[in-house]
Amino acid sequence: MDSKADFNKRVKEVIFPVFPLLADDFLQQSGIKEGICLDIGTGNGYMGLALAEKSDLNVRLIDVNTEILEFAEENIKARQLSDRVETLLANVEALPLRDNYAKLIVSRGSVFFWEDQVKGFNEVYRVLAPGGMTFIGGGFATRELMEEIGHKMKEIYPDWERHLAERIGPDAPDRFREVLSKTNIPEAKVEISYDSVNLWIIIKK
Questions:
Q1: Distance of alpha carbon 85 from alpha carbon 124, whole angstroms
Q2: DSSP 81
Q3: Beta carbons of 99 and 127 less than 8 angstroms apart
Q4: 3-state secondary structure of 96
Q5: How much of the chain, in percent, has pLDDT values that exceed 70?
Q6: Strands across the sheet with 128-139, in order?
Q7: Is 124 exposed, middle or buried (CB count within 10 Å of its CB: 0-12, 13-18, 19+)?
Q8: What is the mean pLDDT of the chain?
Q9: CB distance 120 to 126 below 8 Å
């Protein structure tokens, strides 16, 4: 397993180009440009930071790992965004936030590792503000980027394609529909957007 430093280096060197493109997509689809945004399972913070750079959002970078949040804090300072971005040590299954707290909630890549996805989604819906929207799942923005990143990742992880198929393969939408059916979230509030390159669970409130 990677050390946290190795993880930071890999995301920065290989996956980083995805985040600005996803930020553009999320902002355009949601129309949300201000208010509070949560980036759950933030890791290095690049997803939330990209959103902050492209909007007036106040962003909370949330992760369960103290060491990885240290990298996120370094990235906040490097981008001079300390006035609008901060880290929060927390588990998605028990967010220390009030009801109806955030207008935009994003999470790229972490949902596959949530220990209890039902609890996690219920917490996300609880803290989502009326009129708010989520983008939870995984993706690479474009097929070209997916292929470019996949080529690099296969050199590091020979099982990359298998892991990718497990997470955002064609069976993934149905697996998430089953999970979501067990939550307190009204079915009408949920959409699963899937195109083999991106899988996003879009929840509106």
A1: 19
A2: -
A3: yes
A4: coil
A5: 94
A6: 85-89, 56-63, 34-40, 102-108, 128-139, 198-203, 190-194
A7: buried
A8: 94
A9: no
Q: What is the pLDDT of residues 166-204, one digit of tens each?
A: 999 999 999 999 999 999 999 999 999 999 899 999 999
Q: How many CA atoms lie within 13 A of 11 on its CB side?
A: 20
What is the tens place of the pLDDT at every residue in 20-48? 999 999 999 999 999 999 999 999 999 99
Closest to 11 measured CA to CA, from 110, 118, 158, 142: 110
In the chain, alpha helices (H): 4-10, 18-30, 46-53, 66-78, 117-127, 143-156, 160-168, 172-181
User: Would you say 35 and 102 are in contact if contact means Cβ atoms under 8 Å apart?
Assistant: yes
